[in-house]
Every structure is written in C-alpha cells, then in structure tokens.
Amino acid sequence: MAKTLRTSGDYTVKAGNGFSGNNDIILDSRTVIVKGSMDIEGESTTIDTATLSVEDPIIILSRNNSIPTDIDAGILISRGAANNAAFYWNEGEDVFKAVTTTSTGSGLSITDTALAKIQVATPSSGSDAATKSYVDTEIASGATAFVINFSGDDSTLVPIGSGNTIQFKGDTESNIHLAVTDSPDKVTVSLDHDLTNISSITASSSNSNLDLITSGTGDVVINDTLTFSGTASDPTATAVTKLYNKTAGGGGTGVFFRNTNISSGAVGELISKKKATALAIALG
Fold it and tell me: Which of 125, 156, 247, 278 is deepest in the core (most CB within 10 A)?
C-alpha cells in the first residue's frame, strides 16, 4: 500500500539520542529515489554497487581546496594484495601522473611506488601524446624535424637527418685509423694506427709539457735530424737530464745539459770533436 507523508516544514529523522543521533537508519527497498538535491555532510561516503552511473559530465574533486594547498587529487584503484593504481594530479610537482602506489586514499597525497604505462592512440596534432611506435617510425623514416648538426674546424654546420648514417672515417693505409665501439650512451673512438704526415704537434696549454711515452721498455727513436731551437735562459735543474740549445761556449757545440744529479745541477756543454782533439793535444 502506497503511503505519502507530507509536512509543512522541515522533517528530521533521528536514530538514537544526541544531537546527531548515534544509530543507523536503514532503507530496505528495491529503489530509493531522491527527487531533490542531496547534501551529504558526513566524514565519508561508501557506495557498494555493481554499477555506478553518473549523469554529471564534470566531476569536481577537492571541492573545498580553494587556497590551493598541496593536496593531490585523482582516481585511485584498489588492486587487492598488489599495490594500488592511481591517475592523479600531483600538486607539488604540478603534473598529471599514472602510478602504482601504497596509498589507500585516506590522506591528502599519493605516494608513488612506480610510474605506470599509459597507452594512447597515434597522435594527429603537435600537442598529442606520442606513442613509442610513432616515435620509432618517425626516426626510422627520416623525419625532417629530427636533425643533428655537426660542426667542423671551420664551424660549418653539417645537418644529419634521422635516416642518415654518421661515419667517422680515418685512413687505414697511412694516417689515423678509427675503431669505433658502441656501448650505452657513449661512443669510444680509438686512434689505432701510426701517425704520419704530421708536421707539427703542440701542447694543449701554455707552459705545459709534451710527453712522448713508449710502452714497456721501448725507446723514443728519432730517425732523422733533431733540431733544438735557441733558449733565452738555462732551464731549472731537476733530477732528469734536460738538453737545450743556446750560444756555444767552451765546448763548441751550443748543446747544453742540466741535471741536479750531475755537478750539483751546474750547467754543462757537450764538447765537439774538434775541441776534444785540441784539448788532448794541449794537455799532452
């Protein structure tokens, strides 16, 4: 039997004693219809339904967050024993994120455990999210938007498109041989050949040494003339022998040496054959 209860003012139903009541109200029926708006002022709302259908096209989350404060907001999916999943706005990072999380939705923030994959369709405009397949295809097809510029010694820019090959080429017969090996995030170029046709080698910075170092017990071999340019002053004596050239003295060669272990670091001059012969005759 249908029944209608009408009042001329507000109608309040309380369960139990106290201002807000302390017992439950259970509506046991096939369907409960609320004709007017419904305002729920409790601390939580739980809906245990197999299907939820909402007519409102725009759902507002964090409705009372007007400052704004650092409150994350989004959708959290319960996954049972596994970490939950969430798609939410991270207020602190100012970005949307798809993650797995140990958060249960009871707080004001989402704690990320790992980023989650998002699958999207092939982009059709510049602002669309791109799929991995789309990016791989664009690179492989030589898209004009993907260009690397290489600059030579003369600063001329050489464009390298995504479909092109970058080749470091040496001369395997007489000059520099380049052996290129690749590993994650780097390319190593090895100079694996004798250097020929080199007319000048200069140290990288002012007053720095130029070291010629052999492997093991090998020697530095000079097959032709070794020329010393003149020096304005004697070098500082060290524990190694320094050979240098300046105006010839009593030795008649102009080739001098200095070593802290020889004559306490005094400057000495190599003596010529002519000077040695004259001294031998003079000394008898």
Answer: 278
